[in-house]
Amino acid sequence: MTPEIRTESERYVLRDATGDDVNLMLSWRNLPVNRQVSKTDHVISAEEHRRWWEAVRTDPARRVLTYLHDGVPAGTVTFFDLRFDGLRIGSWGFFLDAEGLAGRGATLPAWLAVMRAAVAYAFDVLALDRLDGEVLAHNTVVRRMNRRFRFVEGVGRVEVHDGREITVIPISLHRDNRRRR
């Protein structure tokens, strides 16, 4: 069991995802707004999601966390390709309950809080030296937010996923360059 990351007076929490979170994760993954900015843009079936969950929940190179916003599950953060030999490196991604947060007027605060909590988890809990990720070229809002958090973009590459051609831009953040509050 990994420790929870709590920020801003305990309002925003990352905790280990559980089987109770699986259906919520699937519903968030399938929101059109999340699919539009993901490599996988098809609707994910319950069976496909179940296979993913079975694979990731026991994989030592992965962590799946649930983000709580004001005590309510509101997103998922995944860390993957974790390597702890020599230079400690890992990749990450997240998706939020865009509809639920928008309904509460909490989208931007949740987005900022989950990014702060995920970066803190990467460097303070996983003790990574470098955190990597990817963003689709057309996702300019996320690209701006990543720069705000001091992620550096690499050279984009064209990939084909679900029958569509997309440009994927690698991002990275070194421990020494992270923003601290």
Number of strands: 9
Alpha carbon gyration radius: 16 Å
Strand content: 25-35%
How many H/I helical runs? 6
Low-confidence stretches: none
**Can you tell me the overall shape?**
globular
Q: Could you characterize the architecture of this molecule?
A:
A hairpin with a 2-residue loop joins strand 8 and strand 9 (164-174). With 181 residues, this protein is α+β, with helices and mostly antiparallel strands. It has helices at 22-29, 32-35, 46-56, 98-103, 107-125, 140-148; strands at 5-7, 12-16, 63-69, 72-83, 89-96, 130-136, 152-153, 157-161, 164-174. It starts with a strand and ends in a 7-residue tail after the last strand. The longest helix has 19 residues, at 107-125. Strands 1, 2, 3, 4, 5, 6, 7, 8 and 9 form a nine-stranded mixed β-sheet that branches.
List keywords for this structure.
alpha+beta; 31% helix
